[in-house]
Write a structure and sequence with these properties.
about 300 residues; mainly alpha; two-stranded antiparallel sheet
């Protein structure tokens, strides 16, 4: 059961991330005003900041206490936001609303929407690189950068998204759907938690457990998203409902049915908590956050 105290702490941490995003945003000049404005709109309008919070809490779980985590948190949210900006484009999901607001392309035009996503991705890595100068453990920072780049790229989120786009409107099997979810959704959650663990000095074995735990969280998160797409309201989600049906996408609900999809969420949830406990470390907020992510209603 999620307590009111947890929700208050989550809101506080969300506000802290929002302040970091403001602090790290690029500055406008007389020529680049529109692209900076669209970048900031894409990044700052709405969002629960779950991935940077997961990163920070995993960092704390392993005893991390340096400022080096901050630019990585910002970079993580920039990468996530860019993926949503491009996901909403007419060539992809063709959505007009995201996080309860107009999507970037529908507000600024498709051309600027594409460039705003590109700008977020590039600025994410610029930002992450500033973290290298904030720690004496630069080998950890470089290792974290490699994980961030790989999990966001063709062996991670982009790889999953490409298979998803290719198969839109087609019949796909369970293995293909699982591959899409592992990469499209799971990879960035893995990146967030692995970067936190690596920067804090977790062992190779511990990082591997975190990677597996984050994958279970990501799978449960995405299947729950499938369920909410059919059961939640537009007001709860802050975006159009039944968009998967509109875009003729196969989901866990359409492939397995609602009941089995719910059972999959429960199974992945139990696995993630089991892996968390195997680390033999304590962060009660992180444990509650995992539960919240998996069982959320929006």
């Amino acid at each position: 059961m999620i307590s009111n105290n947890f929700e208050a702490k989550l809101k506080q941490k969300e506000d802290q991330v929002n302040q970091l995003l403001e602090d790290y945003c690029p500055k406008k000049d007389s020529f680049n005003e529109e692209i900076v404005e669209s970048l900031k709109y894409s990044l700052l309008v709405g969002g629960k900041r779950l991935r940077p919070i997961l990163m920070a809490e995993t960092y704390a779980l392993f005893g991390g206490n340096e400022k080096v985590i901050e630019p990585f948190m910002v970079a993580m949210e920039m990468i996530h936001s860019y993926s949503l900006v491009h996901d909403d484009l007419p060539a992809m999901d063709n959505d007009d609303y995201r996080r309860g607001n107009k999507t970037t392309w529908s507000k600024y035009g498709e051309d600027i929407g594409i460039l705003a996503g590109d700008a977020l991705l590039n600025f994410a890595y610029e930002t992450a690189f500033t973290g290298v100068a904030l720690t004496k453990n630069q080998d950890r920072a470089i290792k974290a950068l490699k994980v961030l780049a790989k999990k966001a790229g063709i062996y991670g989120m982009i790889g999953g998204q490409s298979v998803d786009v290719k198969n839109t409107g087609r019949e796909i099997n369970k293995e293909t759907l699982s591959y899409i979810y592992q990469l499209k959704t799971g990879a960035l959650i893995q990146a967030a938690m692995m970067v936190g663990a690596i920067l804090a000095g977790a062992s190779q074995e511990e990082v591997k457990i975190v990677e597996e735990m984050a994958l279970s969280i990501g799978m449960a998160f995405q299947i729950q998203d499938d369920i909410l797409d059919l059961t939640a309201t537009k007001e709860e989600l802050g975006k159009p409902i039944q968009s998967d049906l509109k875009n003729k996408k196969i989901t866990y609900v359409t492939l397995y049915g609602m009941q089995e999809a719910k059972e999959k969420v429960n199974s992945y949830s139990k696995e993630s908590i089991k892996l968390y406990h195997s680390l033999a470390k304590e962060n009660s907020f992180l444990e509650s956050l995992i539960e919240f992510l998996i069982n959320r209603r929006k």
